[in-house]
Amino acid sequence: MAQETQGAQASQEALKASQVMEGQVQADMPGSLQDGMDLGIEVLADEIEAGDADGSIGSTFEERSKKYKERIKHFILMNDPLMRVVFNDIPTLEYLLQVIMKDPSLKVIDKTIQADYKNLEGHSVILDIVAVDGNGVIYNIEIQQKPEGAVPERARYNAGMVDSKELAEGEDFTKLPNSYIIFITDKDETDRILSDKVIPVVDDLQGETDEDNDSETDVRSDVESGSDEDIEKPYVHRIVRVDADTGRIFKDRQTIIYINSRMPDKTALGKLMHDFHCEDPDDMYCKPISDRVRKIKETPEEVENMCREMDKIYNDGERRGKVKVALNMINNNFPADQIVSMTELSNDDVNRLIERKKKKEAALQPA
């Protein structure tokens, strides 16, 4: 127990040190501008097309908030801005991990949302969620709507970046904590992450990562019922390194988990994944999740905070100029790839603006 406590303290200290030393991105600062957050680009486009010459002025924040609030109603947990706010709450994050890990006793003692892991000599990453439990186990949770964001190499790199913060100079490698890299994806990624080749000796393995874990543990009563055997595979992949010659698990104590969020709702995890696609908290199974989402979507203070987060996109001058150029190119029927190249907006940004134009044109067509 003392060793577990020391491990938890070491992991917690490493996480805090990375926050201070590496310019940690906090939940109330601009994070990655993706998924639902990019809905703010449509508000910016509306302002530019309303007649303002350079897009630098326009409506007041109060006027823009009306548009933001309509969009917030449609956010789901697969959207980056709602996910970040919901799981910035430790009890809610704890519940998420309890269900995924099938461990109702799991306690989160520290967490960082939008964790900025710097690599001074290479590619840095911003991880959606990094958490530490009471035994010092590290969890990196990534919500990925886009297939390219969930490639196996991404999981491998995230794991390496997480490990890179966990040992002090000269510290023994055996002090590395157990770690889990968890991808929650919008669809089945089996063919993308797994080869068709099967190692015969490993064919019958069930993916157990803990030799002492011989039974599954039910989670809280409000989401229990069913087991993984009740549903078709593949919806969950628990990936560990295996000796190809013997089938024995390599004891590096690192696990990568892929969860298809479109799984049926027969299990505790299936019900949780169902809730990741609900706009209305009344449609959710899991009370801890629905209560948290309801608070964020219906509490005036929380809604105001979400509006201000979205407004950071509107107030980004560089982004405003790029959007104006993109709108002009779209109106002149330039192909999407050229618009991306010229403006350096993302493919998603440009496609969103193109779809916006199509919807506006369709609305003008006679019935």
What are its keywords?
367 residues; single chain; 13 helices; 12% strand; alpha/beta; 6-stranded mixed β-sheet
Can you walk me through this structure?
With 367 residues, the protein is of the alpha/beta class. 42% of the residues lie in helices and 12% in strands. The protein has a 6-stranded mixed beta sheet, with helices on both faces. A hairpin with a 4-residue loop joins strand 2 and strand 3. The protein is globular and about 65 Å long. It starts with a helix and ends with a helix.
Q: Nutshell version of this structure?
A:
With 367 residues, the chain is an alpha/beta fold.
Number of helices: 13
Q: How many β-strands, per DSSP?
A: 6
Distance between the termini: 71 Å
Strand content: 5-15%
Give the biggest beta sheet: 6 strands, mixed
Spatial order of strands in the largest sheet: 1-2-3-4-6-5
**Rg, Å, rounded:** 22 Å
Segments where pLDDT lies below 50 for 5+ residues? 14-37, 53-57, 206-226
Helix content: 40-55%
Secondary structure class reads alpha/beta
Please state the average pLDDT score: 79
